[in-house]
Request: fold
Amino acid sequence: MSLIRKSPASKEKPGFFTGASAMSLDHVLLIQIVLSGLLLGAVYALLAAGLNLIFGVMQVINVSHGDLMMLGAFITFTLYAQFGLNPLLSLLVSVPILFAIGWLLQWAVVHRVVGQPPLMSLLMTWGLALSIRNAGLYFFTANYRSVSAFRGAFELGPIALSRSRTIAFIAALVITALVWFFLQRTTFGKAVRATAQSSEVAQICGIDVARVRLVTFGLAAALAGAAGSLLITTLTINPSIGGPVILRAFAIIVIGGMGSFGGALLGALIVGVTEALSAFFFTTQLAEAAIYLLLILVLLIRPSGFFGAAEE
Amino acid sequence: MPRKLFHPLQVVLSWLFLAVFLIGCSPAASTPDSPAEQPAEAAGQPVATDVPAAAPVQPIRVGASISLTGRYERTGAEMNHGYELCADKLNAEGGILGRPLEYIIYDDQSDPETGARLYEKLISEDNVDVILGPYSSPVTIPASAVTERLRYPMIASGASASDIWSRGFDYVFGIYTGAPFYLEGAVDIAAREGLTKVAVLTEDGAFAIDAVRGAMEFAEEAGLEIVHYEEYGRDVTDLSAAISKARAAGAEVLLGGTYGPDAELIVRQSVELGFTPRIFAFTVGPALPDFGENMGQDAELIFGATQWEPTIQGPGVEEFVQAYWDRYGYEPGYHAAGGFGACELLKYAIEEAGSVDQEKIRDALASLDTVTVYGAYRVDETGAQVAKPSYLIQWQNGKRVIVWPFDAAEADYILP
Reply:
């Protein structure tokens, strides 16, 4: 019994429109694969949202964001390996710790490059990235780790949804919604958005801009930590994961729109689905290239990204 | 805009915080390092030497560069431990040709160019009598080009890339089983069980492709059919499309050209998607202890290739494993056994040659047919190892057991 009606030899010609009966089965498989792409996309959205938050408020591109994520992942791994702590509960540990680390980094070093030429912030956060990554390799070793707390799948009729990815997806959406609510509805969130619009005007209006920046970097790092805690339940990673992850996160924020919180979410989901579809219709090897092709297309057609502001 | 002056306290405090936090989180169960290990020194400084006091005869000076720092630090150190243990054993037995062994070991910092430069230095400046290979294929490739030019035979103690032996070199000899043989056992088991449909998923790196091409040749010889073949990039995060295609093609056997994390991704997503081939076999991944820790019960019945296991039967293996435990406090992996075996092989070659004449050692290495702790040794005309099989392990009841080749098996394989 074959789910897709095609011979393995003719890889390029998917049997999507090969017949009415096969079509429904193909549809199931297609939905399955698109959902799979969406699920992991939400975790990347957390990461990209943090990057965009920092960029929006400070015009700093944080190259160390993937490595902050790695710290979150390995906090969760350590708590799981040592105490068997549920990865969702370990969010309560990784998120505050990463918030504190983000706050400290901003207080100690990052604030010095705010308002400086972009190269300054790139170099500085790149240095941070290397320091964190190598500290991670030293303390956690280069071994590949994973947390198999959620095995198997939720079955919805013919569709099987990975349990770990579904849980990560829901958790990521909840966290994104909470941060969204914080930014839209609280006074401090409004201060953050005001600072993003114009730090000078915000300062004149009595907003403690330095404090807003501390919270922003802390919050962004906390989001990265949450992303890491969720990612390690679905993937096997080692402390070098920050490099490949940050590249993908950059593609996401450019596609979604630099500096836009909603753009990060949309960009991540678009990237996830693009990857899944390319793997389905072509090959997995091309899926990664497809992201960057999409990136080039977006830059050609709408350089500010889907949600990005047109000016600047 | 006025900016606060740089406050050193801020930096110190933040790094202290990071350090404390990281120390607090480091897993306590990490493999212990050797208590006797000396601190790694900078490249160009001899790190370890075994000089017997008041030797009446000239020692045989053995030169090698090993990755004692950098990305291959852990595995390089294990190989170095193998060298050390072997030298101690040989010296206790009276050395080679009555001459004690003395090591000149440099640290190449896991950098191929540094490794190549250090072999030039060992031979041209330090005038060592013989050399042993460095750790890892990337370092061995340029280093063996140097030793080839200087006509010094090298036992490649820590490398398996086919590229090393496809260059027409006359002075490089392998002890690792070549990548194309890694999945021979899995194909053999599939053929015995009458399974015919094979899906191949592989990383697109040189080693993995090398390994699955070999496996596909074995499969073709055995009359198996490759129903799906797909490559993926190193940082792959989702293989559900590839797995769905393999399932749709009716695959009964899944062979993976993997390097570790991707093997876990394939198993995890196959379980999620309800894809249950009779055989899951991977090149690198399942033979690592981490696999069981990371995968839990999903590791059960998964096959993996391995170069060597401390439980294999062979002359001196038990004593080697015991001596390694005693001295370094943890179980030796195949890198350590490779180092020990290479040094044993060097002894046999020198004894066969009757001197440390490079040409005679070369001829001896080309014709020797022997067994070391690492397993059987015999090379073909290119210098590539052909006598030692790749072992196949299977996870059974939470443990790795050797199931192939059958004459070395600790247990029968189990298919679901």
Chain A is about 70% helix and 5% strand. The mean pLDDT of chain A is 87. The radius of gyration of chain A is 20 Å.
